[in-house]
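Before the break, one more example. Copy the sequence into your notebook; we will annotate it together after we see the structure.
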Amino acid sequence: MKRKFTIIIMAVLMLSMSVLTGCSLITRNWEKYYNAVVSTIIDQDKNKIEITKRDLITAYNSYGYYFEQYYGQTREEAVKSTLEQLESRKLTIRASEKMFKEKNGNDQILTDKEKAYLWKETSDALEENFMSYVNQVTGTTSKEEEEDDSAVKFNGYEKQAILNEQNQIEKVKGLDELLSDFEFDPANAKDIANPEDKKLIYDNLVKLVMSTSGNVYSKAFNEYRKALERSEEGLTSIKDKTVTALFDREIDRIYKVLYENFMIEKYSDSFKDKSTTSNVTNSKLLELYTNKVLSSYNQYVLEGDSEYENNVLSGLKDIYYFKDGQNDTKFYTVSHILFKFSDTQTEQYNKAKSDLEAGRISINVYNEKMDALYDAITPTVRAKDSTTGIYNEVEDKDLMVYERSAKALYEEIKYQVEHAGDGLTDKNQIAIAKAEKFNEFIYKYNEDPGIMNAECNYVMGVNKSQATEDDFIELADGRRYKSYSQMVSEFTLAGAELYNDGEGQIGDLSGMVMTENGIHIMMYTGECKNLFDIIVNGVNGVQVALGDGAIQTLYTERLNVCVDKTIFDKLYDELNTDNFSTFENANILVLRENCQFKRNQHNYKDLFKV
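Here is what the structure looks like once it is written out:
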């Protein structure tokens, strides 16, 4: 939860450096300026909620600017939209506090576990903010920025439903509470309302600053302190200017943001349906699948859409029927790992090609240059962080011996994949074990982002019957195909070899495929096929509905054999539309409906200036 709050927390530090730079905020009474009330809400219980200009500026810097930058609103419209959302936010927090205080016997809003959780989140956020100043001082990027640039994560698929032993669909039960992964020790509970616990947050920061030799952390601490002082310039009501008091107020600001976000999320979660009963039935799911197959059949067979082959090659997202005539293209999928050329190697590759075509070098010299280039490729190697699930690049000193050479790494991957199914007897389970092992290596070594977390792998096709002489490619053993692919020719040829006249087995690997991009290791991941011919063939011209037995096939048939997401999952997710966002919007309207709003535009109209 901490990650989603970081931007808001950091925005609190920049109140006097607002992105609303056209406001001409010069020589003002800052106390009066920031504390000016821009909106007053009288709720249904006659309680008064006031929103200050400080609240509005902070909200704009945190999320309101999206209205202007991404939704085309004017500055005035964006500020007004921000204020409206801020009003709804305050009302939701108030409703949440009322609800959970009643649930806790009108004793307290937060449980002891929740108080401890927010204490830890506040402590962690203060440390995160401090580390951002350390990065500024050292000129390095933060861990999050590094992850954005180079790290990857295997997202997999979180199943939303299962088939039970009675072949009925059940929803996967969600978490019973927001803090199910938070380890709470009642004997060591913390509460920021306790002065000693609150002071401990600051003390821990000081210990961190003092824990490192040199002056980097001390300098970062001073930069943080200066930023906090700037954020409070002109606030005459603040009398205690000591460093301890300064950070005490910073802790309060951070806690407020975390508390408010937590109360909103808790309120939202309380309305979600956590039962396991699903309104999606087998018949609904099978009917949807049947309709999708018939739609593809009508479009590409009965109506004869000429874009059939291009559409299939572009991806299987909306393709549910494949032509299966003798002269029709046979489509199949492949996955791959790319050891990519560096920019310098790409330039050398292109120059060698150009020199060969211009006659400046012989074919023998060209081949020598190519061999040297491919031998020089250094694979990118990542290791998985067991806590975050993120794969971060490994430093050279930590590489395994076989990871220092593309050829050696290929042999290691080949060995691991070929033995992934050892001990299994079921043919399908062996194939899946090989594919899943290959998928692990994709996140460790691959440099083609298009294959990561893909719902379906790359699609290719072959057809021996309908082709002109110019259309053919020829395999090493003399077999000739007309091959359909959006890939480079070497990749296309290797794919046709893996297909092997339809005899290819899931898990089969190519050799090292050399292309203009670098070295590829390809895996055959299966032929595109129709699961139930009866849908389009029918019986005596009458459409036949799929029986309950078909649900098991859809439940096990993976969209991408490397990842455990099936046709059943895709169809279920489409049928199980989440109406909760609609409910939330309606609930906000109810909360606003019984309130009185008084906006003081005079106190914020200067923010309209660009």
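Confidence is low (pLDDT under 50) at residues 1-27, 143-148. The radius of gyration is 31 Å. Try to locate both features in your own notes.
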